[in-house]
Structure formats: C-alpha cells, structure tokens
Design a protein that fits this description.
Strand content: 15-25%
Shape: globular
Strand order of the largest sheet: 1-2-3-4-7-6-5
Number of strands: 7
Helix content: 40-55%
Structural class: alpha+beta
Oligomer: single chain
Number of domains: 1
Low-confidence stretches: 1-8, 63-70
Number of helices: 6
Order of helices and strands: HHHHEEEEHHEEE
Mean pLDDT: 77
Length: 240
C-alpha cells in the first residue's frame, strides 16, 4: 500500500506539472511523426483531468497508509500547545530547531533520505530568517516572530521538474512541513487539505489570487505562476 501511495503521489504531481508545462512550452509535446503541436488548452485540460483522477487515488491510499503505519503527530514539542500559550498573534509555536526536528520526524516516516540538514539561520536583521535548499527546484524559507522568536511564516518554492524522484520529494516536503506545524490535525485530513491547495493552485495557474484553506488555527495558501512556480505558504490564521 505504501508503494501505491508513492505512485499516486508521483502521478498527481506529474500530471499537474504536465498541465503547467503544456501552457508554458507546448512545443515540448510536439508529435514526432506529424510535427503537430497540441494546443495549450488541450494540454492543460489533459493534465488537469489526469491529476484529478490520481488525486482521488492519493486520497484513498493515504487513508490506508495511515491506518497501516499508524502515522500520528510529529512527536516531541507540540506546536499547537505552544501556540495556545504564546502571547504572540503570529507565532506558530516552534523555534527553528524545534521545527527542524519536527519536520525531520514527519518526513522520516515517508522517506528517511529526505531529512534536512541544519537550516541556515540569520538573526542579525530586524526580522530573523532561515532557509534550506533541498534542490535547485525546491527551497524552503521562513521568518521568525519578533515577540517570541518562533517561526511565524514558512514558504516553500516549487519549480517544475520532470524527474520522478524530485516530484515525489516536493509533495512530501509539503506534507511533512504542515504535519510538523499542525500535529493536532489528523494526518489524513491534513493530506487532504494540502492536496486541495496544491491541486487548485495549479488549476488556477497564473491567477492573481491565492488558493487558501484554514486548517486548525493555521492557514495554508498557494499561488502558481509561470515566473514564480508554486509558492506554498503556512502562517497562523488571523481568524483564530
């Protein structure tokens, strides 16, 4: 079942990226025999339909994987409990080191090889920042709350990549990040929310508006464009 989940995850990302790449560079899909180039709309529609089908399979398999593996929260320090106790209106309840450990605990349940080395942290400016480069097409950055020094924003930048292993890692990083920050949300529900934001953001390719979901007391949002790729962010919701 874990293999099926990985394949469903991979197919969802692959078909979604086909739709995006088809809009940006349809010449890549030129028919070698006839020289015909499919229209941008047909490529986008095909990618959308196929990613939707694989997304349904992903939702089903994620439930089975959770039941079989007993996936739970990230363990250790609870981000949710710390948020409740923090006087800050924006803090997500974990220091950089605590978030790093929670992220690695979460992603290690999917694939241990994806664990991150130490983040690059800079607290010399007015606002503390940190970042981590997984690859040239996958990066993470965040900022620190001025009041308690904890993480108050995470942005994951994703660029299209045709390699299957990289596509799988992209989505796994999104899941591990949100699971680390939202340990009280059932893993199945969190996966569903992440995939909805991911999928709808690609459907609304180049839209001026971001796709948003409130999950617990956090907000997941994403926007996908031809110049920026996908910018997936997590912040504490102002709605509480």
């Amino acid at each position: 079942m874990l293999i099926l989940f990985a394949l469903a995850l991979l197919f969802t990302v692959t078909f979604a990226l086909i739709g995006v790449v088809g809009v940006i560079a349809p010449k890549l899909f030129r028919d070698r025999k006839t020289g015909r180039i499919p229209s941008r709309f047909s490529l986008f529609l095909a990618g959308l339909v196929m990613s939707g089908a694989s997304f349904a399979l992903l939702t089903y398999t994620s439930t089975k994987v959770q039941q079989a593996a007993g996936f739970g929260g990230s363990g250790g320090v609870s981000a949710s409990a710390n948020r409740d106790a923090s006087p800050s209106a924006t803090s997500m309840g974990l220091s950089v080191d605590e978030f790093h450990d929670a992220f690695n605990a979460a992603i290690g349940r999917y694939k241990k090889e994806y664990k991150a080395a130490d983040f690059d942290v800079d607290t010399t400016g007015v606002t503390g920042v940190f970042n981590y480069i997984f690859s040239q097409d996958l990066t993470m950055m965040g900022t620190l709350d001025k009041d308690d020094g904890n993480v108050d924003l995470i942005i994951i930048n994703i660029s299209p990549n045709e390699e299957e292993a990289e596509q799988l890692r992209m989505l796994t990083v999104l899941l591990a990040t949100t699971e680390a920050l939202n340990p009280d949300i059932p893993v199945e529900e969190n996966k569903k929310m992440v995939m909805e934001v991911f999928h709808e953001s690609i459907v609304k390719f180049n839209s001026e508006d971001s796709v948003e979901r409130q999950v617990g007391d956090l907000k997941y949002s994403a926007r996908t464009g031809d110049h920026t790729g996908m910018m997936f962010s997590v912040v504490k919701s102002s709605e509480g």
